[in-house]
Amino acid sequence: MKKNFIPLLFAADINVYSVARAFHEAYGIKTYAIGKAAVGTMPLAESKMIEYKADPEADVQETFLKLVLEFAEEHKDETIFLLGCGDNYIQLISANKDKYPENIIAPYIPIDMMNELINKEKFYAMCEEIGVDYPDTFVHRKEMGHDYKLPFEGPFAVKPSDGIEYWRHPFATQKKAYKVYTKEEVDQVLDDIYGAGYEDSIIIQNFIPGDDTYMRVLTNYSDKNGKVKMMCLGHVLLEEHTPHGIGNHAVIITESNETVEKQFKALLENMNYKGFSNFDIKYDQRDGKYKVFEINTRQGRSNYYVTNAGANIAKLLVEDFIEDNEIPFHVVKEEHLWMVIPKGVAFKYIKPQEYKDRMKKLIAEGKMKNPLFYEPDMSFKRRLRLAKSMLGHYYKYKKYMD
């Protein structure tokens, strides 16, 4: 007899909505979510399939553990999938794994391993061992100040080695990543980041040329025995371009690349990785290599592109942990289109005609979805909220890309 199970998700963004939709599509069940954002914030606003609770200290250790334990007690007759939809939450989930009651499943790697992987400097060292390509990189430490020499020419990509710690120290010009052209500009970014209180290393890379269409995203699921069971490569056609959202995906078409999939399967299985993993990759036309930027030790915020292409991420968890099935290895190969912006924005800002033609074909074939528009979860109020949210993208792209 199958166990009763429910998902408890931490965060309040499109990642949460996409995972909740996967569970609802597969099993018709409600998702419970807890996050810092106020009740009524999109994309969870007016959702009937998500029961959301706001707590401004949800990502504080004591509060987080209290919330989880109280929920587990309230649902002690059910098995709970405890899932994080942001790096701060997955760190908390992993760090507290030995404190959960038996009815909680937390499908994450140990916290020590997670901290190693989240740190870009240490992650690149692991890539080096397996032969996974990454951009030419220089690691800057605070004590170096301006007394360093970069081993490659600009333009440069600058980003913190520890993203979680970085966002704990906000400042006026803060961005997810920076593209600059001279060492003087690099120095200014370093001064801004360290000046705000960040102490860890900063990654400076040779910027790989090419627009958003050179980006790829790879999502994988490794079972509880550390074997990769699902891989889904997405070809990114457009990203967000707001300062805090830069790099977030807006349009993806699924595709397959055997060379890329083979490399990352070896990387994950070599480290005995378990659970969802998500890699940001860019194709470097200068040498024909696909180069990885980072790993997310969870499903990415664009995870519905995987479910949309036929590999429902909720089913993978249930088959592995509830049904205890041997999951056959599966590489997603069928093309599907995922987008979280209006079609008008997508067709205006995606330049290559070949991709516009592919998009038109998939839309005509009914193979396009926006995860936020889910008919069983639509109400008049939610439609109004979504319409307003979609219109906002016209303004944002005009402001940051025109």
Please describe the topology of this protein:
Blueprint lengths: L4 E6 L3 H14 L3 E5 L14 E5 L6 H14 L4 E6 L2 H9 L8 E2 L5 H8 L1 H11 L6 E4 L15 E5 L2 H5 L10 E3 L2 H13 L6 E5 L8 E8 L5 E12 L9 E7 L2 H13 L4 E10 L4 E8 L7 H5 L4 H10 L7 E2 L5 E3 L3 H7 L3 H12 L3 E2 L10 H22 L1
Parallel strand pairs: 1-2, 1-4, 2-3, 4-5, 11-15, 16-17
Antiparallel strand pairs: 6-9, 7-8, 7-9, 10-11, 10-13, 11-12, 12-16, 13-14
Q: How would you explain this protein's 3D organization?
A:
The termini are far apart. Strands 10, 11, 12, 13, 14, 15, 16 and 17 form an eight-stranded mixed sheet that branches. Strand 4, helix 3 and strand 5 form a beta-alpha-beta unit. The chain has 402 residues and is of the alpha/beta class. The chain has 13 helices and 17 strands. The longest helix is centred in the C-terminal third of the chain and has 22 residues, at 380-401. It has helices at residues 14-27, 61-74, 87-95, 111-118, 120-130, 163-167, 183-195, 258-270, 304-308, 313-322, 343-349, 353-364, 380-401; strands at 5-10, 31-35, 50-54, 79-84, 104-105, 137-140, 156-160, 178-180, 202-206, 215-222, 228-239, 249-255, 275-284, 289-296, 330-331, 337-339, 368-369. The radius of gyration is 21 Å and the shape is globular. The model has no long low-confidence stretch (mean pLDDT 96).
